[in-house]
Structures are given as structure tokens and as C-alpha cells.
Amino acid sequence: MDFEGAWHHVMNRGIDRARIFAEATMRIFLIELCDACALHRIQIHGYCILPNHYHLLLHTPEAGLSPAMQRLSSRFTQAVNRLRERDGPLFKGRFRSIAIEDDAHLVRVSQYIHLNPVEAGLAAAPEEWSHSSAAAYLGLVDKPEWLHMSELLGMFGREDPQVAYAEYLREGNSRGGQTPRRIP
Q1: Which of 76, 115, 143, 148 has the fewest CB atoms within 10 Å of its CB?
Q2: Burial zone of 85 (CB within 10 Å; 0-12 exposed, 13-18 middle, 19+ buried)
Q3: What is each CA distance from 16 to 42, 82, 99, 135, 163, in whole angstroms?
Q4: Angle between the 103-119 and 161-174 helix axes, to the nearest 10 degrees?
Q5: Residue pLDDT, tens place only, 91-139
Q6: So where are the chain's domains?
Q7: What's the rounded Cα separation, in Å, for the pair 74 and 69?
Q8: pTM for the full predicted model
Q9: How many other C-beta atoms lie within 10 A of the C-beta of residue 131?
Q10: Please, are residues 107 and 168 in contact by the beta-carbon 8 Å criterion?
């Protein structure tokens, strides 16, 4: 359900869990994501792109999630199909969105998104996965202009919120992560 001011954990997976993303297609996905979100005035607060699926943390100040995600999926699929000289769908269907209920849920979802590559065995720590917003949240790389981090980091206090967020990620990593809900 989308409405003005809603927060969403958005995800989708490749058909038959097939690999969709490689280095070039991850860049294409981010470009199309930024374009779709800018067009529909959606804020990107977190992301993680893995070989066969993605997770997004989005805020819709003016609603518009469905048309933005439809544009993203359509344009990304067309670009990848041209690149790979193929046709047909890449994703198993329409995106899935879980409404974020409160601040505690928002923080848990961000942790889950950033720990996803660790749990998948693709990285030893969240900041090591370059196709995620984790390193930006921890201050290890420059924040992309389109990534909104202040609201989430603001929940970790005024005294060095990046250090507090890093600790929160480490705690989740040592416990195997906190999974609000798994992608189907």
C-alpha cells in the first residue's frame, strides 16, 4: 500500500532465481532507479543489489511507488535485453513491497538490506559489498547525491551516528542478522 509519506522495503528476484546483475547491469539498474525515483519524487534511503535480486529502502513523500517501479523494471529489462541480445522478462513478476510500520521497523529493514550480501556469503562485512549503500552509511565512501541518509542516521543519535550505525550492523552480523521478512 502506497500513500503520501509511506516507507517501503521493495524487492524483486530474477526468474528461477537466475543471475540478473553483473557489473555493467548493476550500473544500468542504479541509473534507471535514480531516473524513476526522480521522476516520481521518491527518495532512495538504502539499496543492495545482489546477483539475482535487489532490495530497496524507499520513502514516497507524494506516493507514486507503483509507476516508479514499473518504469524501473521496464526500462532496466529493455536495456539488459538489448545488451544481452535477448528478449523476455528478467524478474519473476511485479516487485514486492513491505510497508514499514515504525522507526524500529525502518532501522531493522536497513540492517537487513545492508547485511544481505554477508548472509549470502558474498562479503565478510556489509561495507565490503560495493553494490550497496552500506559503505556510504558508514562514511567509507562518498555519499551519492541521490542517497538520503540523514533520517535513518538521525535515529542513531547526534554523537557520531555513523559509528553507532556501524555497531548496529556488527551486532546484527554477529547474530546472523535481523530478518524482518525474507524475500520470496
Answers
A1: 143
A2: exposed
A3: 29, 21, 25, 30, 39
A4: 60
A5: 999 999 999 999 999 999 999 999 999 999 999 999 999 999 999 999 9
A6: 6-98, 101-174
A7: 8
A8: 0.92
A9: 20
A10: yes
Amino acid 170 reads R
Residue 52 carries which side chain, given as an amino acid letter? N
SS3 of residue 6 by DSSP: strand
What are the strands, taking DSSP E only, across the chain?
Answer: 6-13, 43-49, 53-60, 96-99
| DSSP 8-state secondary structure symbol assigned to residue 4 | T
> Which cell numbers hold the place of 31?
541509473
The identity of residue 149, as a single letter, is M
Which residues are paired to 44 by β-bridges? 58, 147
Q: Are 14 and 20 in contact (CB under 8 A)?
A: yes
